[in-house]
Write a structure and sequence with these properties.
Elements: H1 12-23, H2 27-49, H3 57-89, H4 107-134, H5 139-159, H6 163-169, H7 175-185, H8 190-198, H9 201-208, H10 213-235
Length: about 240
């Protein structure tokens, strides 16, 4: 069914309500899986970025390649995190082992999807990176290119937000078919998703008052809301 037929009731408030209901009584696994995922990302950053040269052209090239590699590995674990949140959405039992689902199935497809998305991200930000490298004194050029690149990347990120969700639901689809279905599903829905994501900004700001501790709950809450958004897309 075309995504444009989605009910207008798919609002931030509705998704958040469904998210709260989904994680009610399951906060341990919701927070635990999110924390484990974040720890994996931090460890990857420390291990891979720490091995880079400090400066020069080689450092620039390797840094972008490392960025793509980190995104691919992160996608494998993100696939598992999505599995956890979708199980909670449907009232099913989830466990921490679900976080590692991407290591057991669809790994090649996840790699292809994440490579595509990471490569696009690098291409969007590459002009500003090169400007900073070649013309370090021209701040105006750097920030102009960076802002333009981020806006383009944001559009692509919203367009392919459901990709790993779709792969979880349709494991027999090819990576290319998943990306095509993602584009179709998100037609007319990007603004709704953007609003949902930005609606968590006040909670993130409040979480700073707890020295980041409450941020673990906010992260679990936002992940559950994104799963609820996808569920509404598919049920519309």
């Amino acid at each position: 069914m075309e995504a444009k037929r989605i009910s207008c009731h798919c609002t931030s408030t509705d998704c958040k309500a469904e998210a709260r209901h989904a994680i009610l009584g399951h906060l341990g696994i919701a927070v635990g899986s999110g924390v484990t995922y974040l720890l994996v990302l931090i460890l990857l950053e420390l291990l891979l970025q720490g091995a880079l040269p400090s400066s020069g052209t080689a450092a620039l090239v390797l840094s972008e390649l490392m960025s793509i590699l980190i995104s691919i590995i992160a996608g494998i674990y993100q696939y598992g995190l999505i599995c956890v949140n979708m199980k909670l959405q449907y009232g099913q039992s989830a466990s921490l082992s679900d976080l590692f689902l991407g290591l057991r199935e669809n790994q090649n497809k996840i790699v292809r999807i994440m490579f595509f998305l990471a490569a696009v991200q690098v291409l969007c930000l590459l002009p500003s990176i090169l400007a900073d490298f070649l013309l370090p004194q021209n701040d105006l050029l750097y920030w102009s290119l960076a802002a333009a690149g981020l806006l383009i990347w944001l559009y692509w990120d919203l367009t392919y937000y459901p990709a790993l969700y779709l792969l979880l639901d349709y494991p027999n689809l090819s990576a290319r078919a998943v990306l095509q279905k993602s584009r179709s599903l998100m037609k007319g829905q990007k603004r709704r998703l953007l609003y949902l994501e930005f609606s968590f900004l006040p909670l993130w700001i409040l979480a700073l008052c707890s020295f980041g501790v409450a941020g673990l709950w906010v992260y679990a809450y936002s992940n559950a809301a994104l799963a609820a958004f996808y569920r509404r897309l598919m049920n519309s």
